[in-house]
Design a protein that fits this description.
alpha/beta; FAD/NAD(P)-binding domain; 5-stranded parallel beta sheet; 13 helices; 26% strand
Amino acid sequence: MKAIIIGGGIGGLTTALCLNEAGIDVQVYESVQELRPLGVGINLLPHSVRVLTNLRLEEKIASMAVETSDLVYFNKFGQKFWQEPRGRHAGYQWPQFSIHRGGFQMLLLEAVKERLGEDAVRTNHHLESFEETPEGIRATFVDRETGQVLGTDVGDLLVGCDGIHSVVRKQLYTQEGSPCFSGNVLYRGTTRMPPFLNGTSMVMVGSMKQKMVAYPISPDLDANGHQLINWVANLKEPDTQLMTVRDWNRPADQDWLVQKYQQWTFDWLDVPAMIAGAGAVYEFPMSDRDPLGRWTFGRTTLLGDAAHPMYPIGSNGASQAILDAEVLADCLQSAPDIPAALQNYEQKRLPATSQVVQGNRQKGPDQILDIMEERAPNGFTDPYEVFPYAEMDTIMSRYKVIAGFDKESLNQKH
């Protein structure tokens, strides 16, 4: 059996590793000329780290990531109102990791080349079209810059792992149109600075109108004792139409952003200094797509952001793609034929991920930020007087169940 994987991102590379473990031949195709360690930080939740551990990658990940100890919520005045342990600190069998997205992608790429061969990933091959034939799936590739046809490949199945602007999805759903813009713009950067809190904490500050997320993504301290901190500022766009004229990932006005957060100087974190200290700041319109009724058409299916792009709330985007990869490999091993296996994969993962997409649209666990802002816009003396602990706990626990990482269920898995 041979699988053609479209896309060399986290979802595509993890899928290649999982399918290889299942004894399936794999060829990955990627549009860009060279895969480079781009991007900022991401979180890998325990349910995805379980998959990566089974792929024998945990040790390498741990060497370059921060094992997240706790998640802490603060209001816009820097007052703490929720704190919970994460990963192994919370009793999970697996850790939660904060890691540089590009570094993690390069780790996966190295593993794919080691296990599947140097030619397992072909770059500068942009999918132009595909068709199902009596022999299987035939895919045609071009040079995206020149349009020159580079050739075709034939496989038994094709997996679209090519992101929110998926070519595979576009061929399956020709009338779908553009992603859905949330009205929020994310501003992302990384800054070398002194560690905050205990040096392994992830923080959420403010509300969905104006929010800051920050967490360390490297365990190493430099000569000044500084740590690489990943941060994401979330601002509600006053005019959602402005986003139609912007690139998807363009440099932002750093000085303007510093001014927006000028008052956010806390005794545990200086937010304006953190923004000002970044080498570059990029803006990104927070977008998703409506959940689909189906991903699978014969011998073709979708995975990761191509299947279920979601708002980056609850630290779940990359983790859900990793879960997809494991389930797909399991289904291909156990089903009698490929179309049946892909249908089985879809039945297991489509409803689950649709719940996460919809849950993130309802602000996921971060809704506790907005509730606290509504109830105590001027701050509080005792947070539990305005927002009882049990009420917050219910919201946080419910999201863990929706996203598939409630501790009791997960710890029963291997």
